[in-house]
Design goal:
about 350 residues; two-stranded antiparallel sheet; 11 helices; about 65% helix; globular
């Protein structure tokens, strides 16, 4: 492991693990302070933090293990015990989100606190955690992936030549994701006291998943090798798009109108464009018998635009639904909680 300090038994203490532990402590403090600001009792805020840490880590690790077993089973030679062991494998943020949602619902059930305040308390803490952990990965030499370890010595390098693909481009995806999370955190802190539809936890989930659906494309690891056709699709990208599709479908069913139907069509077209564009990496396109080669940078631009359209369609639909409920005069905590789940 890079930057390992010392080991005891199967566990290794590294610069990255220390930074992650520090990030969790800082984020927990932010969550407690935010909860107190939303008039949640201090002991209830501690319950939220404790359950979020436990279930977030558990679900994040379990989703990683299940993904390896189900999707990468052709390449993985270990056992189930190897995957679920806490000192092996990794974490997936989508699983962490699922664990936090469960933690919020359990905390609300046992403490009788409103879900809205609990969600709004944990959103800035989660964004801060993503920023710090994603920033720690390139700083500590983690997360570059086995396919680019030999090619990239500087994790912040945007371009690195490789023997097989000298014109290929490499991007510090984790750095981009960290800065993106920081921008979302600043947005959240600036709108914390605003009782408007856009100050909603699901809005930040949509924005983050939109960014992740693009940043995952920049990574050189984490492919799906379930079939030869889909070897270019990143696993977190697939999860992000599936969740965004679920949010869009639910919101469309909640408020059927022409705008939402249009957004549904935009989403479908953007997903198809995104998938189609990924076939253009280092491959010619046969157009009327003529072979056309696309520069990879142009492909990245197309992917960025399609990812933005995916996020726009989901966000626009969700804000339309929230605005309708907000201006409808029913701003009860239970209704807002429903939109936050």
């Amino acid at each position: 492991m890079p930057n390992a300090f010392f080991s005891f038994g199967p566990f290794t203490v590294s610069a990255f693990s220390i930074f992650v532990a520090f990030s969790i402590l800082v984020s927990a403090d932010v969550c407690i302070r935010s909860a107190l600001m939303h008039r949640i009792k201090a002991n209830h805020a501690l319950v939220l933090v404790d359950t979020a840490i436990v279930f977030g880590m558990l679900f994040g690790h379990l989703l990683y293990g299940l993904s390896v077993l189900c999707v990468e089973r052709t390449a993985y030679t270990g056992t189930i015990i190897d995957i679920i062991s806490p000192h092996k494998g990794g974490f997936m943020l989508i699983g962490v989100f699922a664990g936090i949602i469960l933690a919020v619902n359990l905390t609300s059930a046992f403490t009788k606190e409103g879900k809205t305040g609990l969600y709004k308390s944990i959103v800035p803490a989660m964004l801060l955690l993503i920023f710090m952990v994603r920033l720690a990965e390139p700083l500590c030499g983690q997360g570059k992936g086995p396919s680019v370890d030999a090619a990239i010595t500087n994790p912040f390098l945007g371009y690195a030549p490789e023997a097989d693909y000298p014109d290929d481009k490499y991007f510090p995806a984790y750095l981009y994701e960290a800065l993106y999370a920081l921008v979302l955190l600043i947005m959240n802190l600036r709108t914390t006291s605003i009782a408007k539809p856009h100050n909603n936890p699901v809005v930040y989930l949509i924005l983050y998943l939109t960014g992740q659906s693009f940043f995952e494309i920049l990574r050189q690891d984490a492919y799906i090798n379930y079939t030869s056709l889909a070897t270019f699709i990143r696993l977190n990208q697939l999860y992000a798009v599936i969740i965004l599709a679920g949010i869009l479908v639910v919101d469309t069913l909640r408020a059927r109108n022409k705008l939402n139907i249009r957004n549904l069509l935009i989403f479908c077209c953007a997903v198809l464009l995104n998938i189609g564009a990924q076939f253009l990496f280092d491959k010619p396109l046969n157009l009327f018998g003529r072979m056309i080669y696309f520069d990879n940078l142009l492909v990245y631009i197309i992917l960025a635009i399609s990812s933005a359209c995916i996020g726009y369609s989901v966000l626009s639909t969700h804000l339309t639904v929230l605005s309708h409920e907000y201006h409808g005069g029913d701003t009860h905590d239970s209704n807002l909680a429903k939109s936050s789940c």
